[in-house]
UniProtKB/TrEMBL annotation:
Domain Transketolase-like pyrimidine-binding: 2-167
Pfam families recorded: Transket_pyr
Gene3D superfamilies linked to this entry: 3.40.50.920, 3.40.50.970
Source organism of this protein record: Streptomyces variabilis
Name of the protein described by the UniProt record: Transketolase
Amino acid sequence: MDSMRDRFAPVVTRLLDEDPRVAVVLAVVGADGFTEARRRHPDRVVDVGIREQLLVGAASGMALTGMRPVAHTFASFLVERPFEQVKLDLGHQDAGAVLVSAAASFDWPAGGYTHMAPGDVALLDTLDGWTVHVPGHPDEAETLLRHAVAAGDDKVYVRLSLQSNAAGRLVDGQRFVTVREGRAGVVVAAGPMLDAVLAATEDLDVTVLYATTVRPFDAAALRRASATAGTDVVLVEPYLAGTSTAAANDALADVPHRVLGLGVGRAELRRYGRIDEHLAAHGLDARSLRERITRFTAGAVSAGA
């Protein structure tokens, strides 16, 4: 199966052909995928070199002229390094752009901590007005990329990852999808966490919601699920643990509830290993998730049942 990032250049190249507003801004990373697009659209495919602050600044300038820029590089270089430009050039100037990241939280462990960005979504959460898509499969990435570019002049972040569920689902760029219904709690699985969550809860009496658009947070879906499944809520996210706990708490503010946020821990893992080793170390593999969800959810079937 191809990866989400494999879909990025072909999808955006088609968008360049279809819409004269669309432009692509790169900082070396991913430039090889746009060789042909640059030949056809030399004024709308721009590589600024290894200058990530300029990457965001150039995208902002394009947006202010009426274009729809798509900026791409690793998440740590797209959100963390140029955060001041994201905050001011895009946010303060109310300029819309599509930021498309790669490498997710730890997709390239051998690259070291400089190429890891588990805090990217939490960091964007400090700013107003961002839509955040977290696809869990290449087909979903393609759909959400198109949604992002077509979203008027909004500020949109699309988080691509090598981690993927086995099959894609129909997503609309807005709502959570109900994958399984139960009566002993709600588990919200974000993006590529869905398969592990389904394996972990296979015989547990819980509702599983699938979130590929995490901002705005689909409070209505959580409230509907909680009305029948109860108000014990577990959030399983492929980025910093607890990133969405405030949003879940706000959604259920008028009813007694408990929220457990599972995700990537704050401790740096200095033996980088493989992706699956990172998932296990952070308790995001199916076995660890089962133990943690079973302990937390009221009325869940015991692990050995």
